[in-house]
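Supplementary Methods S3. Complex input for the iron/sulfur cluster-bound model.
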Amino acid sequence: MPPKAVAKTLPRRGGLFTGVTDNLAALMIGLKYFVNPRRFSIYYPKEYPELRQGYRGFIILNKAKCISCAACARICPSAAMKMIRVPVPHPKEPEKKVTKQFPVINYQRCIFCGYCVDICPTEALYHVNYHDIVYDNLAEMFWDLETFQKEPEYKTALEGTPVRLLIHEEYGLVKIPARGVREDGE
Amino acid sequence: MSVLDVLLAIIFYPPIWQLLILGFGGALLIAIVAVWFERKAAARVQRRIGPYWASPRLGGLLHLVADMMRYMFQQVIIPRTVDYFPFLVAPIVGMAVSILPFAVVPLTANPSYWPLPPGLMEYSLLLALAISTLPPIFLIVAGWAANNPFTIVGGVREAFIILAYELIAILSLLAPAITVGSFNIVEIVQAQGFFKWFIILNPLAFLAAVIAIAMSTSAFPFEIPESEPEVVAGPFTEYSGILYALNMGGAYMRRFAFSLIASLVLLGGWYPVVPGEGVVMGYLLPSLVVVAKAALVTLAISFLRAVYGRYRLDQALDLAWRLVLPLTLLAILLALIEAYLGIVQPVKPDAAPCKYLLLIYSPRELLVLDYISGL
Ligand code: SF4
Ligand code: SF4
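Predicted complex, serialized as structure tokens:
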């Protein structure tokens, strides 16, 4: 049986009276928060939100695990990841050189979608849980194979305190000191 | 005459005190404070107060001074395709014209400190309103001269808004003149006295005036010509550096100049100070009271940004023509009724230049017969 057709009514447009009272109510709410504000922002970078493990931050390559399958470069929607050829010693005869492909990344393009990490069959790629890093020029944002294997320096962690944030309608932003986000247990 | 007297005479010479110090200097100060207040009030209300890295005690006020310095020294880029002369001149003249109402309004009842001769003073409200309608023309010129689709669209939107608001602003600010029976701002203010301010006697006129001021100076929710998401930056898209600052600051100065007229005719002018003799009681205090009231109106209008979103052009026009214009006409009706009932005593009904207006509605004084017999 087909569903019955129901006539839907649009919400009634208010008259002049509701127009006036609604505007007054909006102004009163504005005045209320103007006199007694709630803060929903934090003192970045003196404080910064603690990001949990699994946050899609910068991507690091563990070169030893990489099998050169190029799946990461192929899945990348913004073409940020490219495969490059590097000479490496042959696994059986170390004096012979062979070329192998490894991914490199261009952070001018990366959108931190994490597809590359998800698709990597050997878990050679992993995220670090921060992404606020400042570069002096655009060229620095192109990581070569060396840089791609090192976790970048996290400046904010050196000078700010990590906090955990709770949004509370009544009290605004509630900040709880977090234990720290760095892997080294600090 | 001592040196001090000469100095005082120079400072308190109306064109200098009123136009340069209170007008230009005051408007500049108000523009800075209004920009700062607009941003910070919106941040407080919308719960996004950030940290104040510079001048935390002043609430970050010095940022704006730095901003102004930056605009001053920024390179002015003039694209090759623009119409050079109007492009350069429009923001400058627009800014100059926006503070001109200061030059014709009296800030005190003491005739020796009026900026105009007493004969012209009779028409001061008309003059001030006439001048305050000039600056938008230069906005349109600026948009047209920049010779770019975005700026022309911005200019056209500005023209739409002007058409909508100009009538409202003028009618609502003229309502007190009808009640008092005079275009002389001094008489209008004195008729209000201590307790009969027109904001109480004629709240509709005040409401309409506030809406018209917000509309005319692109304050929220009527920030339509410069609406950045739709038309880049409206008429000012091509402007940079000091020219852009002039354009942007000009809107705040115009808001201040309009607020000045509104605070004179609707908010009781220099009352509660009664102007007396001498510079301090006769000019300094009354003028500062008027300017303080105007500043309050300006800041109150700037506060609207915290609460409202922006209207679309059609919504704003709809509001203006269908709601605010009838409201203004009601305010005029109210003014006529009040004049008929004689709520505010005309200061000198005979000398009133709007005798013509009075003769329409004032059977009380039978000015029709007066006038006809006078012929
Ligand atoms: S995170 Fe997304 S955009 Fe960045 S490199 Fe990986 S797949 Fe490309
Ligand atoms: S998907 Fe993983 S294993 Fe394959 S090339 Fe990329 S990093 Fe290496």
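Residues A 59, 75-78, 80-81, 105, 110-116 surround iron/sulfur cluster (ligand 1) (CB under 6 Å). Residues 3-345 of chain B form one domain.
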